[in-house]
Amino acid sequence: MAKLWYVSHPEVRIDGAVPVPRWGLTDHGRARAEAMCGQPWIAELDRLISSDETKALELAAVVAEHRSLPIEVRSSQAETDRSSTGFLPPEAYGPVSDAWFANPLESPDGWEAAAAVQQRVVQGLDDVLGGNRNVLVAGHGGAGTLLWCHLSGEPIAASQDQPGAGHYFTVDLSTGRPRHRWRPIDDRES
Questions:
Q1: pLDDT tens, the chain, 190 aa long
Q2: How many CB atoms lie within 10 A of CB 8?
Q3: Which of 89, 129, 134, 167 is deepest in the core (most CB within 10 A)?
Q4: Is 19 helix (H, G, I), strand (E, B) or coil?
């Protein structure tokens, strides 16, 4: 049975002077990515896809080095385009994010609408979702949540979001359905 592991990048170095898509992993985030490579399921991988954002590419590079796999970069797997607001501090980010989830057809403060992100992410993995190879997609929490909602048949909702950076879910590619909810990438019990 072929599977897809959708992995959201772990902790990033937040810098208001750097565009969000160019943020990289913190030392702690990199350590969590390296710890993930000790998960038993990592040995099953034979394909590696990444968003074109730095934080996802750095996650993918850790896996690529561990498994000697090439990285397929896909801009379709990028996180929500939030360039209209740029970096928002947590007290400003929360309300916009809540509105984004609550009204998926709308573009709060100019953000890319959640429904549009979902369509882009799903279509960008069309060749993989019906495939027969074990693949890891290095991506993002918001984009991954929208993929999760689509595959699980759930409406777009903040309640489906990952509990924090650096989580994953597994998809059974024979059914196209998730096998479990978000799990921490470095939890050996996962």
A1: 999 999 999 999 999 899 999 999 999 999 999 999 999 999 999 999 999 999 999 999 999 999 999 999 999 999 999 999 988 988 999 999 999 999 999 999 999 999 999 999 999 999 999 899 999 999 999 999 999 999 999 999 999 999 999 999 999 999 999 999 999 999 875 4
A2: 28
A3: 167
A4: coil
Strand-pair category, 47-50 with 72-73: parallel
CB 185: neighbour CB atoms within 10 A? 23
The verdict on pTM exceeding 0.85 is yes
Q: Which residues pair with 172 in a beta bridge?
A: 3, 177
The SS3 call for residue 23 is: coil
Host H or E run for residue 64: helix 54-67
Strand partners, 6: 137, 169
SS (H, E, C) 145-181: HHHHHHHHCCCCCHHHCCCCCCEEEEEECCCCEECCC
> Residue 70 CB: number of other CB atoms within 10 A?
9
The amino acid at 65:
E
